[in-house]
Amino acid sequence: MTGVQQEHTSLPLLQVRHLCKFFGRQLGCHDINFAVSPGEVIGVVGESGSGKSTLLNCIAGRIKPSNGSVLFSSSKGIIDLCRCEEALMRKIIRTQTGYVTQNPARSLKMHISAGGNIGEKLMAAGMRHYGEIRKTALMWLEKVEIDPCRIDDLPATFSGGMQQRLQIAANLVNAPRIMLMDEPTSGLDVSVQARLIDVLRKLVSGLHLSMILVTHDLAVARLLCHRLYVMKQGEIVESGLSDQILDDPRQPYTQLLVSSVLKP
Amino acid sequence: MPLTYNFAYLDEQSKKMIRRAILKAIAVPGFQVPFGGREMPLPYGWGTGGIQVTASVIGPDDRLKVIDQGSDDTVNAISIKQFFTKTAGIETTEHTRAATIIQTRHRIPETPLQKGQIMVFQVPIPEPLQFIEPKRTQTVKMHAFEEYGSMHVRLYEDVAKFGRIATAFDYPVQVHQRYIMSPSPIPKYDNPKLHQSPAVHLFGAGREKRIYAVPPYTDVVSLDFEDYPFELEQWDGACGVCGSAHSFLDEIVTDDLGTRMFICSDSEFCRNNAGNTFP
Q: What is the pLDDT of residues A26-58, one digit of tens each?
């Protein structure tokens, strides 16, 4: 039956089902449901404190959700990251996902050279040939528009924008299937932001990557995301195609969010 | 009334607890076993871990050899030997072959070890992953799940900076195809001596309160890259005293003009090699 085949190829890469996280009595996020298909870029927008980062951290296995499941379709079938063995969860997270934080200093190793930072995931995946590691690191520096002659410099000597691009390279080097990005452009100068978005767009379309992008910058969301989820007080209040949501917001909260963007 | 100690200073309960940790360490080669480190009458960093291990395994019939930087006659080695002579009344020796227990900092003797001998290492930093991941909670998991790839980052940094693997001591090894272990204070020159060694190797870290071990005839492999394989140190000259070209040499500045000479770091080996011709 062709229908079965079709269903198989359109299987979502990642499904989040009824995901809840409570910090004691404090609500992190509540009853979150969505799915990400291969190659799809999902945006999660909302004001600060709306549970966006909590959601992303739950998906990335950095905090344990109180309830619900995160289903990842790996080569060995669909695996619930919240319930499988920790060793397997860590392996999938390490090899299949990338995680880009707002502050590169939290993710990069600042006492290790740029090349070492990019090479770390390769070596973790078992590459033991220095020349190959070096070559791959140089290639990725070029891809994220960092001068390859800076390969032996410490990330601390890089500008904020360069650090952020280095972080992206270090996460993409082992060809993950999905990137989780927590406000990658905040804290950067507007012109630097534009360049970063440019790099990201090129990489995402070239590598057929899925991406979950958490941001409160609606302009970034419009440029990069296919679909948007709007969060408020830990819940998804509206979802749909990016242009549809940004041009024709239904919920009063989304309307407020969209109208609050400054227009030149 | 003269002050008397229990045999080998530590009380029997403490020794029992440390022996349990040692047994566990031998059962899981390279795994760091936590133990309740006791206060010893010497400061941390002077060998509190090694001295507790020695005190727990030593018996009245043992002959103890203690070396510091390969030498039998440095202050630390002499003091530890005196400590055990006083508290356990055991015999000490400078001969590697005659010793049943050898406590060491920095070296494994040049004379090959034999079946039945126990090497006790004084370890300052037991955690090889500390350089990559400072959080203890994380390194425990990395060991448990065998997430060791990032160990090579340290070697990568060496090659990127110096064009070769410049790590000369504390060179990480993989024990029994499983745990990554820090042989801690020994030079990488001594790493191959751990591989398939007939002796038992016990590592005690007093400040960090960990014990780990390499049982006899166990594989110990030094980490490296395919294109930058593990290499031993080499020296331009031979030992200035005994003429040996096959031992670990120390470089010594002999005057204010910068004249220098190489001599064996292992004083017993050097003396035997020179035919006992120097005092």
A: 999 999 999 999 989 999 998 888 999 999 999
ipTM for the assembly:
0.84
Pairwise pLDDT comparison (B95 vs B184), residue with the higher score: B95
User: In whole angstroms, what separates CA A207 from the centre of its chain?
Assistant: 14
Could you give the CA distance from residue A255 to residue A260 in angstroms, rounded to a whole number?
Answer: 8
pTM of the model: 0.87
Instruction: Tell me which residue has tokens 């739950």.
Output: A58
- Looking at CA atoms only, how far is residue A31 from chain B in angstroms? 30
Residue B234 neighbours by CB distance under 10 Å: 8
Distance between A128 CA and the closest CA of chain B, angstroms: 5
| Nearest neighbour of B161 by CB, restricted to A121, A123, A152 | A152
The span from the CA of A178 to the CA of A201, in Å, is: 14
| pLDDT > 70: percent of chain B | 97
Q: Give the model's pLDDT for residue A4.
A: 40
Category of B184 on φ-ψ map: left (φ > 0), alpha (ψ -120 to 50) or beta:
left
Helix boundaries (H) for chain B: 12-27, 48-57, 75-88, 136-144, 151-162, 191-194, 267-273
Tell me, yes or no, if B49 is annotated catalytic: no
